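Lab notebook: predicted structure, single chain.

Context: the supervisor wants predicted structures on file for every construct in the current expression panel, including those that have not yet been purified. This is the next one on the list. No modifications to the sequence; it matches the entry in the shared construct table.
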Amino acid sequence: MRILLWHVHAAWATAFVSGAHSYLVPVTDDRGPYGRGRPRTYPWPDSVTEVTPEQLRDTDVDLVLLQRPEEYDLAAQWLGRRPGRDVPAVYVEHNTPRGDVPDTVHPFADRDELTVVHVTHFNQLYWDCGRTRTVVIEHGIPDPGYRYSGELARLAVVVNEPIRRNRVTGTDLLPRFAELAPLDVYGMGVADLGAHLRVPLTAYDDPPQAAMHTQLARRRAYLHLFRWTSLGLSLLEAMSLGLPVVVLAATEAVEAVPDAAGVVSTRLDTLVAGARRLLEEPERARRAGRIGRDWAQQRYGLKRFLADWDTLLQEVGRCASH
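Prediction complete. Output recorded below exactly as produced.
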């Protein structure tokens, strides 16, 4: 199939474009939010082709994969065809609902022509999609390989825009862990985080994924303190690398992380105590990381993810042809 999708979430898309299809990614001169093209920091295969809005009008597309509400009208404008009506379409919901939770109505609720694909069962449970068909295809990640050494008694964090998002990402909780060990924070918009929190930390702003994975694996444990999020792919990547994890038990995390992979709790004192044990007992940390890796590979492996997507894509394509 020739699938049109926007570069929105590079980590998720990296898994998606690993399939056996052809992928078209819009690119604009400014490489703005609706024309980013291929990412700079993630390896995408040659089956992904950049295409300009002008080229799309004369390009055959078998399916449109929408990820933001405004992409529906944008696709109709650029293709000259309406997603779900003139060309098969699915909408991937990456995010937890915002607003009047749990009564938040999805932007594409009550749409007979679309399927909303949730990336977690938590999302499906909390979004009100009305009569729109919904399915869940859980995340899948390319296996980065077991790399854990844990040689550095430091705590790793991956988060984007932690200052702006603050309580959503658990940024305000980081100082408690900075009392235990040095923090290494990776992501976009992290450069000024240490000054913002007034705690010593090392920030790695927008690192390449491969280099980040190598550095993460040297840290003793991984912190995931998000209060409200879908399910961070960086958490699953850290587990797959073999890191033990310290996880706030919110949203889908309680399903995604077994207790034996580190510590999972809604109690901050329990998380701090668990992080301390992992820092002080390297062998405990190593055993927990092994358990987490085995679980992540079993549940969130790339093969299962791509097979689930192929099943849905074929089904949506067949329905559209009848």
